[in-house]
Amino acid sequence: MTLIQAIQQHAATMPDHVALQNGNMTISYHEFVAEIALAQQAIKECTDDCTIALAMDNHPAWAALDIAASANKTPLVPLPAFFSDTQTLHAIQDAGASVLITDNPQRFTELFDYLVTQTSTIVIAGKRLMMMHLNMATKTLPALTAKITYTSGTTGQPKGVCLSEQAMLNVAISIQQMVHLTTEDQHLCVLPLSTLLENVAGLYATLLAGGTAHILSCETVGLSGSSLKVKHLHQALESTQANTAIFIPELLTALVYAYESGAAKLPNLRFLAVGGASVAPKLLTRA
């Protein structure tokens, strides 16, 4: 079963159950299927069997476009906001992405000024986005490539890894089973959805289980640029009553320190995954 099929099945059996939540905005599984269909149509009309790049903050529209691209068999390149202009341009050229969808048109209009051939506006999940067509040479990708995820490029230019939908689903299904995710689980997307860790282990695993994914802006959860506001992170975990979340070690360090300094406990949080870098055993012991 593909991810879109699982979501459609949830929409048929529990149409009013909340699939995605962004603060006061809720999207039921029935509504989510409709948003994915809108995104599929937008991608189909504006792209011609090409690779698309997605550069936007965490929002339900990100999830709809991601799943729509997969359902359309359109390779997707998620671009992390923390990539420099040089890294972003390299990823776009390396993947041969000739369409960019973004919620930050000013940055990318300036960056791709000489490459933009056409622009249009789409609205997905209430979010207005710009679709830019780029004069970019396409690349031949490995068969079944659904997503190209790029490393941070700390030892050189970012390196792209081509992944099939089945490869990502295998991971998401195993996590769903190991963590015993159910329709009652509330997952808070803390990391950017452009990172594979959050995209697959967080969003996909939750949707496969029929749970609810809380997708707030990175600033709302305390991640703004290179700074971390642990108070915002704690408030987001508390207000969403999140059962699960995914951290990097720095976030766990900050939350543990907040706990040790008297921050209110989070009784709903039952599973916290930590990845992206090595985790000190002493930190795990403190946690």
Structure in a nutshell:
The chain is an alpha/beta fold and 287 residues long.
What do the pLDDT scores average to? 94
Name the beta content range.
Answer: 15-25%
Low-confidence stretches: none
Q: Secondary-structure element order, as H and E?
A: HEEHEHEHEHEEEEHEHEEEHEHEH
Q: Quickly give the structural class.
A: alpha/beta
The helix count comes to 10
Distance between the termini: 36 Å
Give the radius of gyration: 19 Å
Strand order of the largest sheet: 2-1-11-10-14-15
Helix content: 40-55%
Query: What's the number of extended β-strand segments?
Result: 15
Which sheet architecture does the biggest sheet show? 6 strands, mixed
User: Quick one: overall form?
Assistant: globular
What does this molecule look like?
The mean pLDDT is 94. A hairpin with a 2-residue loop joins strand 12 (223-224) and strand 13 (227-228). Helix 6 packs across helix 7. Helix content is 41%, strand content 24%. The strands form four sheets. Strands 2-1-11-10-14-15 form a six-stranded mixed β-sheet, sandwiched between helices. A five-stranded mixed β-sheet has the order 4-3-5-7-6, with helices on both faces. Strands 8-9 form a two-stranded antiparallel ribbon. It contains ten helices and 15 strands. The chain is α/β, with parallel strands linked by helices and 287 residues long. 44% of the residues are buried. The chain has helices spanning 3-13, 29-46, 60-71, 85-95, 105-111, 165-179, 196-209, 230-240, 249-260, 281-286, and strands spanning 18-22, 25-28, 51-55, 76-78, 97-102, 116-124, 127-134, 145-150, 160-164, 186-188, 212-214, 223-224, 227-228, 244-247, 271-274. The chain starts with a helix and ends with a helix.
